[in-house]
Amino acid sequence: MDEYALIMRHEDGSKIASPEQMQAWMKQTMDWIGGIAAQNKFVSGTGLLFADAKVVHHNKVVTDGPFGEIKETIGGFIVVRAESAEEAAGFAKGCPVLGGEGNTMEVRRIAKNDGTH
Question: Is residue 74 in some structural domain?
């Protein structure tokens, strides 16, 4: 069984949710993760904040950011165990982030250190 990262992408990073919206979203997210964990398929996960964020560029210059004005932001990710990318995508379909218009979930198999691709 492989591990997959389910990456939460928000189309418009400049939108700010109210505290009530954030609380409701967090409950929905915890319920979603709980459903995956009940199948013994949840590995780990976390949200990502913009506070104290930096971008290191190819020329080693460090700038503040990324900022919400960019077209798309990554809000967080979870790692799941799955038999296939299709099974992992099935988990991703239940993510509450998809309730936001234009938001997406990216599914990526995590590279192993055993030489397999």
Answer: yes
Is 116 a member of any domain? no
| pTM exceeding 0.85 | no
Q: Which domain holds residue 17?
A: 2-109
Check if the beta carbon of residue 86 is closer than 8 Å to that of residue 31: no
Segment 23-52 shows an average pLDDT of 90
> Checking DSSP bridges between strand 62-64 and strand 42-47, what pairing results, if any?
unpaired
Confidence of residue 114 (pLDDT cuts 50, 70, 90): low
Residue 78 pLDDT: 95
Q: What is the pLDDT of residues 70-88, one digit of tens each?
A: 667 888 899 999 999 999 9
- Residue 89 included in any domain: yes
Looking up residue 48, the CATH number of its domain turns out to be 3.30.70.1060
Distance separating alpha carbons of residues 32 and 95, to the nearest angstrom: 6
* 8: number of Cβ within 10 Å: 24
Q: Residue 4: is it exposed, middle or buried by C-beta count within 10 angstroms (0-12/13-18/19+)?
A: buried
- Looking at the structure of the chain, the number of domains it has is 1
